[in-house]
Design goal:
The chain is of the alpha+beta class and 129 residues long. The chain is 25% helix and 26% strand.
C-alpha cells in the first residue's frame, strides 16, 4: 500500500515480519545465513541510519531470558511482527531513505527465528552493562 501523506510504499507485518539491526551486525548475520544456505535473503538497507532490515517469516517466539533480551536491545536488534514495514521506492529519491541490499525476488522469506538466532550468535556473550 502507499502511505498518502509520505508516498512511502508500506507493507503490513503479519505472515511476513522483519528483523532490523545495524548494518555491521547484519553483514555478519548475512554471511552466517549464506554459509547455512539460506537464500534468497530479501534485505532492505537504510543508508542514512546505518541499518539493514531482513524480511522474514513471522515465526519468532518471544525471548524469555532477560539477559538475551538485554543483549539484543543493546545491539539495537528490533523484531517487527506487527505494524508497517517501509519498503524501498522504485522511484529515484535524493534522500535515499531505503534501498534493496538484496531484493525480494520471489515469495521465499527466511525463518525469522533463524535470522534472530544468527544475530544472537554474532553478538558478544558477556552480559550487557
Amino acid at each position: 500500500m502507499i502511505d498518502p501523506p509520505t508516498g512511502r510504499i508500506m507493507m503490513r507485518a503479519g505472515l511476513v515480519g522483519a528483523v532490523m539491526m545495524p548494518a555491521e551486525l547484519a553483514q555478519r548475520v548475512k554471511t552466517l545465513l549464506d554459509q547455512r544456505g539460506v537464500a534468497p535473503l530479501p534485505i532492505i538497507g537504510h543508508p542514512r541510519a546505518g541499518m539493514w532490515t531482513f524480511l522474514v517469516r513471522s515465526d519468532i517466539r518471544p525471548v524469555g531470558d532477560a539477559i538475551e533480551v538485554a543483549r539484543l536491545w543493546k545491539a539495537r536488534v528490533v523484531v517487527i511482527g506487527d505494524g508497517d514495514i517501509a519498503l524501498p521506492s522504485p522511484l529515484p529519491n535524493s534522500l535515499v531513505l531505503r534501498t534493496w541490499i538484496s531484493p525480494a525476488i520471489g515469495t521465499f522469506r527466511p525463518s525469522g527465528a533463524v535470522v534472530l538466532e544468527c544475530a544472537r550468535a554474532c553478538l558478544p556473550r558477556q552480559y550487557p552493562r
